């Protein structure tokens, strides 16, 4: 230009708020994928969330127990507490860091399409922005349900949510998948859920919420694992937070509690799972450890290997080292730790990430990871990136390859 | 180096901003304490839209002379820009993270000429 001054354009969104469209919030990722040339890769997100509590009035109508249904309806009109019957943790309110991270606080953007449930539209928008071919969707607050003081309520809420999500969300878009909630508090209900829902559209396996305080190797659960293995259905352990056990009660800030509890629960369950020989008892059951990050895994491998070799008499079902079993398990990638890239690289090597790790976003939570977090890892070759971003999940969940990819 | 027009100086309120795009580079220009500061709209953490985040004062912990904690409060001077993706915070005048000096936003020079605000790209 003659003046030497270049014109610019203002971005349509000057400040991101709870009302900002998901596609605008994530626009930088969309743009980045096109710039780097991986927008056309198959990408599967194996852990994202929707806020089932915003649909709670619909969900509770699926409760089959007439008295619990009555209470759930009655509790809806009460103010000041958690939505009826749930054991929603008040501490979760800290997640958005005092309003600093709007998408964690609330997804309040306008949705005009009334032909499908609002959550379907929101999922589609996040998939578009993140370049996803499939997204595995989980609830939010219900991940706390494993600590509900009433196992019967846990079971009936799990049944109700599972029916609601299978009726309302999953049939609307074949790209939306889920691993359905198993209420271990009532094992017989877990069998009902597997029998009733394993063939429903979008169900690619089942999930145990890791925040619970009964050992996962208990004999009452063994028939559940056997049934899942027989039907070739993966089992996920989805980590979560707790601020009520004796250890996390000593952490008086959300950052401290969150950093520990999301890992501690899966440390306990994985230890029991391996030491009690579940991988030997169910060699064809695929297990997936979700949302504990990855930095805990080298610790687990070395710690369990060391102790097992000194005390094999306490774990007689094992035929190889604990780390050998861990290398055969699957993991979701989020929240990935990268402050020391050498340690991250060693972790990837240790867990055979190229074949075992699957990308997850955890969208719309505050510590989500976009696909570029995998693409940008400096030590991965292209095939490893492709495997982690999509190919491993296509294989593990037996998903149809996206057209043209 | 190209001089890029951002806006009219008088249109900026205290703690106001203008996030612009020039040749695929997004830049946020902030007006704080009568000064302009400009950064690329790309968080050093995971590439998030840092300049479209909230502007809040830094949080500090008050220690008494005996080093006992007296709780948290707002710093009266330090202003932060917070990434809306994950919460990374940077001093809006320096572009540096409060606890990681290596985490720095890409900075642009700002000039005001005849009441108009420009960044050098």
Topology as H/E string of chain A? EEHHEHHHHEHEHEHEHHEHHEHHEHH
> If strands are numbered along the chain, what order do they take across the biggest sheet of chain A?
3-4-5-6-7-8-9-10
Q: Stretches of chain A where pLDDT falls below 50 for ≥5 residues? A: none
How many individual domains of chain B? 1
Class from helix and strand fractions of chain A: alpha/beta
Ranges of chain B with pLDDT <50 over ≥5 residues?
none
Query: What's the number of structural domains of chain A?
Result: 1
Quick one: overall form of chain B? Answer: globular
Number of strands of chain A: 10
Q: Determine the mean pLDDT of chain A.
A: 94
Largest interface: A-B, 31 and 31 residues
Describe the biggest sheet of chain A?
Answer: 8 strands, parallel
Helix content of chain B: under 10%
User: Considering DSSP H and I runs of 4 or more, what fraction of the residues of chain A is helical?
Assistant: 40-55%
Structure, explained:
Chain A is α/β, with parallel strands linked by helices. Chain A has one domain: TIM Barrel, CATH 3.20.20. Chain A has helices spanning 22-25, 27-36, 56-60, 66-76, 102-105, 118-130, 151-168, 187-197, 222-230, 254-275, 278-281, 296-310, 322-326, 341-350, 353-356, 372-375, 382-396; strands at 5-6, 9-10, 44-49, 134-138, 176-181, 203-209, 235-238, 287-290, 330-332, 357-358. In chain A, helix 8 links the parallel strand 5 (176-181) and strand 6. In chain A, helix 10 (254-275) runs parallel beside helix 12 (296-310). The longest helix of chain A has 22 residues, at 254-275. Chain B has 121 residues and is mostly beta strands. Chain B has one domain (3-120): Rieske [2Fe-2S] iron-sulphur domain (Rieske Iron-sulfur Protein). Helices cover 0% and strands 53% of the residues of chain B. Chain B is built from no helices and 10 strands. In chain B, strands 2-3-4-8 form a 4-stranded antiparallel sheet, with no helix packed on it. In chain B, strands 1-10-9 form a 3-stranded antiparallel sheet, with no helix packed on it. In chain B, strands 5-6-7 form a 3-stranded antiparallel sheet, with no helix packed on it. The mean pLDDT of chain B is 97. Chain A binds chain B through residues 4-11, 13-16, 25, 27-29, 31-32, 97, 99-103, 366-370, 372-373, and chain B through 2-6, 17-22, 24, 26, 41-42, 46-49, 52-54, 56, 82, 84-87, 89, 118, 121.
């Amino acid at each position: 230009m003659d003046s030497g001054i270049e014109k610019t354009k203002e971005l349509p969104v000057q400040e991101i708020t709870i009302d900002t469209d998901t596609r605008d919030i994530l626009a930088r990722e969309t743009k980045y994928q096109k710039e780097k040339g991986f927008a056309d890769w198959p990408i599967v997100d194996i852990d994202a969330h929707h806020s089932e509590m915003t649909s709670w009035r619909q969900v509770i109508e699926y409760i089959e127990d007439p008295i619990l249904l009555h209470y759930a309806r009655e509790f809806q009109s009460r103010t000041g507490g958690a939505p009826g019957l749930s054991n929603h943790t008040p501490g979760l309110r800290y997640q958005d860091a005092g309003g600093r991270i709007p998408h964690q606080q609330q997804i309040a953007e306008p949705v005009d399409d009334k032909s499908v449930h609002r959550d379907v539209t929101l999922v589609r928008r996040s998939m578009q922005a993140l370049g996803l071919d499939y997204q595995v969707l989980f609830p939010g607050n219900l991940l706390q349900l494993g600590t509900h003081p009433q196992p019967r309520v846990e079971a009936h809420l799990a049944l109700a949510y599972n029916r609601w999500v299978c009726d309302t969300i999953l049939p609307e878009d074949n790209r939306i998948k889920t691993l359905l909630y198993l209420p271990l508090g009532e094992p017989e209900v877990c069998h009902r859920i597997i029998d009733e829902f394993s063939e429903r559209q979008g169900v690619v396996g089942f999930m145990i919420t890791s925040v619970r305080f009964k050992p996962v190797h208990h004999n009452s659960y063994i028939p559940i694992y056997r049934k899942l293995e027989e039907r070739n259905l993966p089992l996920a352990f989805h980590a979560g937070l707790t601020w009520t056990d004796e250890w996390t009660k000593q952490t008086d800030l959300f950052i401290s509690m969150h950093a520990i509890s999301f890992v501690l629960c899966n440390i306990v369950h994985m230890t029991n799972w391996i030491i009690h020989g579940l991988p030997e008892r169910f060699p064809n059951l695929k297990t997936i450890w979700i949302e504990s990050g990855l930095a805990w895994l080298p610790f687990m491998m070395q710690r369990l290997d060391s102790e097992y070799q000194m005390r094999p008499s306490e774990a007689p079902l094992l035929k190889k080292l604990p780390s050998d079993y861990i290398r055969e398990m699957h993991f979701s990638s989020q929240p990935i730790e990268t402050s020391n890239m050498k340690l991250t690289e060693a972790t990837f090597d240790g867990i055979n990430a190229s074949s075992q790790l699957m990308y997850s976003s955890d969208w719309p939570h505050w510590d989500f990871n976009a696909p570029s977090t995998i693409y940008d890892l400096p030590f991965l070759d292209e095939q490893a990136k492709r495997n982690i971003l999509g190919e491993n999940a296509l294989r593990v969940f037996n998903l149809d390859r996206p057209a043209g990819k | 180096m190209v001089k890029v027009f951002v806006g009219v100086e008088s249109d900026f309120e205290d703690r106001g901003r203008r996030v612009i795009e020039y040749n695929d580079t997004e830049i946020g220009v902030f007006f704080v304490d009568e000064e302009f500061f400009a950064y690329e709209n790309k968080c050093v953490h995971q590439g998030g839209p840092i300049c479209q985040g909230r502007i809040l004062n830094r949080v500090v912990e008050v220690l008494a002379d005996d080093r006992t904690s007296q709780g948290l409060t707002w710093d009266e001077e330090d202003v932060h820009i917070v990434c809306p993706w994950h919460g990374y915070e940077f001093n809006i005048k320096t572009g540096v993270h409060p606890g990681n000096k290596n985490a720095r936003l890409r900075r642009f020079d700002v000039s005001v000429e005849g009441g108009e605000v420009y960044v050098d790209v």
